[in-house]
Amino acid sequence: MSIRIGFIGVGGIAQDHIRVLMKMEDTKIVSVFDLNADNARRAAEATGAEVMDSADQVLDKQRIDLVFICTPQFARGDLEVVAARRGIPFFVEKPLGVDAEVVRQKEQIIRETGIIHAVGYVLRYYDTVQQAKQYLQGRRPHLIQGIRIGGSHPAKWWKQLDMSGGHLVDTATHQVDMIRYLAGEIREVQAAFGRVSFDQMEPESTIPDAGAINFLMDSGAVGSLTETCLSPFYGGSDIKFFGPDFYVHLSQNGSHLTLIDNEQSLSVTAQSDPGYEQCRTLVDAVKSGNQSSILCDYADALQTLKVTLAANRSSAEQAGLSL
């Protein structure tokens, strides 16, 4: 059985999905749509798909078995809901949006349809992350530290807070999601964001250039995450879990794991391609009609979004303390 796939949005991140899907013998990309006609044409030439005139034309249950929704979060509308109501399994990129209440309403509809779906928190599919998750079962870290340092997205919309949510919502969301996935839910968030460089370099932008977030977990653990999207000479992502008798460190976006306790000290590098594993898992779920193997669904991704939006709100409402 070959799974027929449609794409809505075929920009940068969609190309990663197309790359791995084309390695699979049981998938065929048949429909593509992008507001950028050149992007759509190039994707069609690379895959043999037909260019559609609209996103709605892609969402044809007679034509496709699965759709990848890779449009920016501000421009997604209700595509996931339309797909779900038409009985089309879907994959949607993170983050789910920039308004938690809008996303919550969509999540309820999607859940009620029972449609097979997945959200693009791809780092969960690293074998190293799975190893860390298994190790941390039954263990309670008391301190969690995370960083996400890197560069800015080139698109103009990305630097508008009401369209992207900023670097935390759009990109460092991966680190927030991994913290939740491995250590449980975040109960409280406090955050401060700054605009030192963007004010000088790109005053028309509205996103912060750096942020510092403190959080409290349901477990009682405390943690922090620092992030910036303006670091041309250094980039990195790390999450460290400190316990009374263990230390777990995931670096390089989760692809490298260090684990130390009283009985072992190991350092391993991921052997899996998480992008391939994510798509393979979804295709298999569509074929079997079973959602259980998918590592992140819409409801789960909504919780990650709520944490990042709460951090934005905390910074905006922070009165500050003069010393």
UniProtKB/TrEMBL annotation:
GO molecular function term, any single one = nucleotide binding
Q: Which residues form the GFO/IDH/MocA-like oxidoreductase domain?
A: 153-234
User: Where does the Gfo/Idh/MocA-like oxidoreductase N-terminal domain lie?
Assistant: 3-121
Pfam families membership: GFO_IDH_MocA (PF01408), GFO_IDH_MocA_C3 (PF22725)
* Taxonomic superkingdom: Bacteria
- In Swiss-Prot or TrEMBL terms, this protein is called Gfo/Idh/MocA family oxidoreductase
Which species is listed as the source? Paenibacillus agaridevorans
